[in-house]
Design a protein that fits this description.
Blueprint lengths: L2 H10 L2 H4 L3 H4 L20 H13 L19 H19 L2 H26 L3 H35 L3 H29 L1 H19 L5 H27 L4 H29 L7 E3 L3 E3 L1 H8 L2 H10 L6 H6 L3 H18 L31 H22 L6 H38 L3 E4 L2 E3 L2 E2 L3 E7 L2 E3 L2 E3 L2 E8 L2 E3 L2 E3 L2 E3 L2 E3 L2 E3 L2 E3 L8 E2 L2 E3 L2 E3 L12 H15 L1 H15 L1 H17 L7 H29 L2 H27 L7 H18 L12
Parallel strand pairs: 3-6, 4-7, 5-8, 6-9, 7-10, 8-11, 9-12, 9-13, 10-14, 11-15, 13-16, 14-17, 15-18
Antiparallel strand pairs: 1-2
Length: 705
């Protein structure tokens, strides 16, 4: 059965919605000698039948009025049986055809649709509709950029509120990437089955809800859980955003405008840095309820960071589903209406409202998926939902496996290596830079330490702050330490006799090999672990402080905000250059060139022996590497067909987040030990990934399949 016949049948199912003329209906094939039993006038031999009907009328005889003798016995008329068999024939043909044949037929349909859809998008033009969608999806991408920075900015303050240990802080930093990794794979796969808009709304709603909740929870465990689920939500947005936007862009505009869209990730980093700088240092912003519930400024910052996600979520309600996705699942009429909306919106904005949308029929691929219709009377409600969920996830898993079939295996594996090496080096270094700056600051801080040897103090009241001091072999008798703060103070081999500590707050303060006799500790946070190899004789601890009550303003916190702000801002030139050149030099050269230049920048880090030098090299590295990220996003969208696009992007982005977790863990472990390993590891990964990227196929002249 030729394509022309199949196309006509597909069209005739929606003829009343599209109001297409008979002349247009025949353009895809030749119907001579075929008279389908559909009740439509076809020409040819039809008049002869009309004459017979007229003669029957004049004779007062109509065969249809005859009573079939088996009618009252419940036996169907032979003509009715033949009619039903004719109608059932195409469905039976599909049922007994080999699945490979059906898939080959679908691929042929998809190729025809790809070229027709490209022409339709060109007719719709690029204008107000695409720019509106650009800003709506840009806010979602901005939320993703914010999520990466939030935990890093709140850690210094959160550790004070939650008494976090070093291992807890490390887990909190990695848990967001773990959630994003799972969310990218899961929600990206669902977007190819349930729709771009629906899954993006779900993704943003999860992120907004749990980000909002995380600002109020007090315990470390609940906060960790909320950030995990929040990361899962926003992790799914990235693959959906690029798949969604690309399906409204023509071939000439796709590379450039997807690169412009990437700028919102940079804007997210700038927004997070600016908000952290302006909100978190105001430790008094907030409120307390009793002694156990505290809502400090860093929690206000977490709330503010949810605003881009909420704004995108609200705006997305007014955006349509991707028409390319709708065509892929056979919803021709809905897709046509959306494309007409895009066309009319753009034409009105250009001052040409009289321009008519000339497309009347769009090719739809053959549907080969098995859909399960569950009746409301079948089983219980949770059984029905279980069947639907398992069926959907089986289809998602089939899509995942499809990306590893012979047709896409090599491209998927090469892209996976490039994504992973890029993430390992980039995310590892952007964590390593602030840690190295902190290390340099700590070294400078320790070099200014004051040392007191063999001091003797008696009957003295300490009511001021002691900071960055070491007291050795001292003797303190009948002294009072009231309403004071210890910051980076160590007492070594000292004697405390009949002293009194009240309302004392401490940070990095320890007593080593000290003897403490008849001393009272009242409402102080000098806990047991702060006394190392000490002898406590007749000493009393009363009403210990609960939780962490530190409010020291760390000078280096401000510098970290500045470093992140400058690092985010430094990618602006790279974003502009990549957007302008993406369609001129191609995706492959952009990825390879950017990664190789970034590898060269890594070697200059050997000369970063000061804070200003590290900041400068960080800005250079981020600016050089952003072009590779943009090109990776574009080529990943273009290499896969519509029904696998978000799934493939989700898999590769999930692998990217796994690389980020490894990079953070490996690079952070070498801070203060050596710079050689992180620098060589990052540069080697970038060189290997950049050279491999040059073997990928170029996609700038390719229509979106």
């Amino acid at each position: 059965m030729d394509d022309g016949y199949r196309n006509t049948n597909l069209y005739q199912g929606g003829r009343e919605a599209n109001q297409v003329s008979d002349d247009y209906r025949y353009q895809d094939g030749n119907y001579e000698g075929y008279a389908p039993n559909d009740g439509y006038y076809r020409g040819g031999d039809e008049p002869a039948h009309e004459e017979d009907a007229q003669s029957d009328v004049t004779e007062g005889h109509d065969e249809d009025d005859e009573v079939y003798e088996g009618e009252y016995q419940g036996i169907p008329h032979p003509d009715d049986i033949k009619e039903k068999q004719k109608k059932r024939a195409p469905a039976m043909d599909d049922e007994y055809r080999d699945r490979a044949d059906l898939m080959a037929e679908r691929m042929e349909d998809e190729e025809q649709l790809a070229h027709q859809y490209e022409n339709i998008i060109e007719e719709c033009g690029h204008g107000r509709f695409q720019w509106t969608l650009f800003f709506v999806l840009g806010l979602a991408l901005m939320a993703d950029g914010v999520e990466v920075f939030v935990v890093g900015f709140v850690l210094p303050s959160a550790e004070k509120d939650m008494c976090l240990s070093s291992s807890n802080k490390g887990m909190l930093g990695l848990i967001v990437y773990l959630g994003m990794m799972v969310g990218a794979v899961m929600l990206g796969g669902l977007a190819d089955k349930l729709g771009r808009k629906k899954c993006l709304i779900l993704s943003l709603a999860i992120n907004a809800a749990f980000a909002f909740l995380s600002s109020f929870v007090q315990g470390y465990g609940f906060f960790l859980f909320c950030r995990l689920i929040s990361g899962l939500g926003i992790g799914g947005s990235l693959p959906i955003v690029f798949a969604y936007f690309s399906e409204f862009l023509s071939r000439e505009k796709r590379g450039e405008h997807l690169s412009w869209l990437c700028m919102f990730w940079m804007i997210g980093g700038i927004f997070a840095s600016a908000m952290a700088w302006s909100i978190i240092p105001h430790y008094g912003w907030g409120f307390s309820m009793g002694t156990n519930y505290h809502f400090h400024s860093w929690r206000v910052f977490v709330l503010v960071c949810a605003l881009p996600c909420i704004a995108s979520l609200v705006a997305l309600k007014f955006m349509p589903e991707s028409p390319r996705f709708l065509l892929e699942i056979g919803k021709h009429d809905e897709a046509w209406m959306i494309l007409k909306q895009v066309h009319d919106t753009n034409m009105r904005a250009k001052g040409e409202p009289e321009r008519v949308f000339t497309v009347s029929y769009i090719k739809t691929p053959k549907q080969v998926d098995e859909f399960i219709e569950i009746q409301s009377s079948t089983g219980t409600w949770y059984q029905r939902w279980l069947v639907r969920i398992t069926t959907t996830f089986k289809q998602v898993w089939d899509n995942v496996l499809y990306c590893l079939t012979a047709q896409y295996r090599m491209n998927t594996l090469m892209l996976a290596v490039v994504w992973f090496t890029m993430a390992l080096s980039y995310y590892g270094l952007i964590v390593w830079f602030p840690d190295m700056i902190r290390y340099l600051q700590d070294e400078a801080y320790e070099s200014r330490v004051k040392i007191f040897d063999e001091e003797e103090v008696s009957h003295f009241t300490f009511n001021f702050t002691l900071e960055n001091q070491i007291h050795r072999n001292g003797e303190y008798r009948n002294d009072k330490f009231i309403g004071m703060k210890f910051k980076e103070v160590r007492f070594e081999d000292s004697l405390f006799e009949e002293c009194y500590f009240e309302d004392v707050t401490s940070s990095e303060t320890f007593f080593e090999n000290c003897t403490i006799i008849s001393t009272v500790f009242y409402n102080a946070d000098l806990y047991e672990h702060k006394f190392i190899n000490c002898r406590l004789i007749n000493s009393t601890f009363m009403k210990e402080k609960e939780g962490c009550h530190l409010d020291f303003e760390e000078d280096n916190d401000f510098l970290i905000y500045l470093v992140s702000f400058l690092g985010s801002l430094s990618v602006l030139p790279g974003n502009i250059i990549s957007a302008l050149l993406m369609d001129k030099i191609g995706r492959i050269k952009m990825i390879g060139g950017s990664m190789l230049i970034s590898a060269v920048c890594c070697f200059f880090l050997f000369f970063g022996n000061s804070e200003s030098a590290m900041i400068g090299w960080q800005c250079l590295f981020c600016g050089a590497s952003i072009a590779a990220w943009n090109a990776l996003d574009v080529i990943t969208v273009e290499l896969y067909p519509t029904d696998k696009r978000a799934t493939a992007f989700g898999i590769l982005n999930g692998l990217c987040k796994f690389g980020a977790i490894l990079g953070n863990s490996i690079f952070a472990s070498f801070v203060g030990i050596t710079k050689v390993v992180p620098i060589l590891l990052a540069s080697s990964a970038l060189v290997g990934g950049g050279l491999l990227a040059l073997r990928l196929p170029e996609t700038r002249d390719q229509v979106l399949m």
